[in-house]
């Protein structure tokens, strides 16, 4: 039996050597995933149960466990409540069981308070969050909040948290687009509570993309910049990074930045819109050899004066629009046949300070009870809201700014409590900017001629 023993040892050594040459197996995605669940009294028990079922199905598709993703669940109510913390459950099945067992908390919808709580109590290292791994927030909401969401959400994003928002109802497109990570088209989903299953696979893929280790990635992409993030490949004592950025069409005009070895992110600003940029992350270390990582990122088109370009910003998709056109975007998931919202938006009679908006009305036995027309600048600013009664399918939006790109959202409200929305991008033409806009009554977003 000695020859067979020698042969076995030789074979084992050969396999071990080949395995060492190939290196360790590919790493699994890893990170800390926080589910922020609207558990307030504004959500019906039926809606809460459907959202809870959706989160359970989403968790079943994710690689949860030690060395991979860890999950936490926080309820939004009068005060935030932690259902379970990161690392409390060591398997995907345990996380699913904990989600199914979660009970609705009721109370006010203090989402801003819950976001501040998440920053201080959950995403902090002292609370068990792992340093150096990607952080993702999935906020499921019916659209409203009793307190401001913007400032605490921005603090989380400044820490490198990727924010996904799933709205099941009455949320403001402009406000939620600003709260979600950019681009909003990838991170913001409007879908009816009965159709949440439609986005499960897409959301799973986006979460995994944000958490895959050893990968340079970009987020918060705008027309003038983007944020880069990467896993902790080095330490402050083991080396440093060289970060290079250059327009793909002009590689000789590269910008360079040296960063310490404990850095895991950097934000580029002052870039040109609608431009491809090549990024190189070069780890420099005397301890071990690490290969450079490369990425190509395209900035978004400029918002104003680009009527022929494809809209890539929040809430707009499809063909671009000039001053008298509209880029259409269906914002909800599949709708019941008996409740169909506006099928088309037409923007016409564009003036420097006004736009005429028309749409195909919802007809039949389940005709809309009325329409909400919201308009706000794509680059940020106060939004106007116009209420249009049932039976009418147009309105004139006044008091606008010349030469400005706007996002117009028409929402149809039905007797069942459901809403269906459609959005369009439109631009006011350039005009006299020094003349003050026509005065309107307080709270009025527009007036019929």
Brief description of this entry?
This is von Willebrand factor A domain-containing protein 1. With 449 residues, the chain is an alpha+beta fold. It has helices spanning 2-22, 45-60, 92-100, 111-122, 150-158, 173-179, 184-187, 200-211; strands at residues 31-38, 69-76, 81-84, 135-141, 161-167, 188-190, 217-219, 226-229, 239-247, 255-260, 265-268, 276-285, 293-298, 327-330, 345-351, 354-359, 370-377, 384-389, 394-398, 405-413, 419-427.
Task: Describe the model.
The chain is α+β, with helices and mostly antiparallel strands and 449 residues long. The chain folds into 3 domains: 31-211, Rossmann fold (3-Layer(aba) Sandwich), CATH 3.40.50; 224-298, Sandwich (Immunoglobulin-like), CATH 2.60.40.10; 327-427, Sandwich (Immunoglobulin-like). It has 8 helices and 21 strands. The protein has helices spanning 2-22, 45-60, 92-100, 111-122, 150-158, 173-179, 184-187, 200-211; strands at residues 31-38, 69-76, 81-84, 135-141, 161-167, 188-190, 217-219, 226-229, 239-247, 255-260, 265-268, 276-285, 293-298, 327-330, 345-351, 354-359, 370-377, 384-389, 394-398, 405-413, 419-427. The strands form 5 sheets. It has a 6-stranded mixed sheet with strand order 3-2-1-4-5-6, sandwiched between helices. A 5-stranded antiparallel sheet has the order 14-21-20-17-18, with no helix packed on it.
């Amino acid at each position: 039996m000695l020859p067979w023993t020698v042969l076995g040892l030789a074979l084992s050594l050969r396999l071990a050597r080949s395995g060492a040459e190939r290196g360790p197996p590919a790493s699994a995605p890893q990170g800390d995933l926080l589910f922020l669940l609207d558990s307030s009294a504004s959500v019906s028990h039926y809606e809460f149960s459907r959202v809870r079922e959706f989160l359970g199905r989403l968790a079943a598709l994710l690689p949860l466990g030690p060395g991979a993703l860890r999950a936490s669940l926080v309820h939004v109510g009068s005060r935030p409540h932690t259902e379970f913390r990161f690392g409390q459950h060591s398997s995907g099945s345990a996380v699913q069981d904990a989600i199914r067992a979660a009970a609705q908390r009721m109370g006010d919808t203090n989402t801003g308070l819950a976001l501040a709580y998440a920053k201080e109590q959950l995403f902090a290292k002292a609370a068990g969050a792992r340093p150096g791994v990607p952080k993702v927030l999935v906020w499921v909401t019916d659209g409203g909040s009793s307190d401001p969401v913007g400032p605490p959400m921005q603090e989380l994003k400044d820490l490198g948290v990727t924010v996904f928002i799933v709205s099941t109802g009455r949320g403001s497109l402009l406000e939620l687009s600003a709260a979600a990570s950019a681009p909003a088209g990838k991170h913001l989903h409007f879908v009816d509570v009965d159709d949440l299953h439609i986005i499960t696979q897409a959301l799973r893929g986006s979460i995994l993309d944000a958490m895959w280790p050893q990968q340079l990635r970009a987020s918060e992409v705008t027309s003038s910049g983007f944020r880069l993030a990467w896993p902790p490949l080095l330490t402050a004592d083991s080396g440093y990074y060289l970060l290079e950025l250059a327009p793909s069409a002009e590689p000789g005009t590269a910008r360079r930045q040296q960063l310490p070895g404990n850095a895991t992110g950097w934000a580029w600003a002052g870039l040109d819109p609608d431009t491809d940029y090549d990024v190189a992350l070069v780890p420099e270390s005397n301890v071990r050899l690490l290969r450079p990582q490369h990425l190509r990122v395209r900035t978004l088109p400029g918002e104003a004066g680009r009527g022929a370009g494809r809209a890539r910003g929040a809430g707009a998709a499809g063909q671009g629009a000039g001053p008298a056109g509209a880029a259409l975007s269906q914002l909800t998931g599949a709708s019941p046949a008996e409740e169909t919202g506006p099928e088309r938006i037409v923007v016409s009679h564009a003036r420097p300070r006004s736009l005429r908006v028309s749409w195909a009305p919802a007809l039949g036995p389940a005709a809309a009870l009325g329409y909400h027309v919201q308009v706000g600048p794509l680059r940020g600013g106060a939004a106007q809201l116009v209420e249009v009664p049932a039976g009418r399918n147009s309105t004139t939006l006044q008091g606008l700014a010349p030469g400005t790109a706007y996002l117009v959202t028409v929402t149809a409200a039905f007797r069942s409590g459901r809403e269906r929305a459609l959005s369009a991008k439109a631009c006011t033409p350039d005009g006299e900017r020094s003349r003050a806009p026509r005065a309107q009554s307080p709270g009025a977003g527009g007036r019929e001629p």
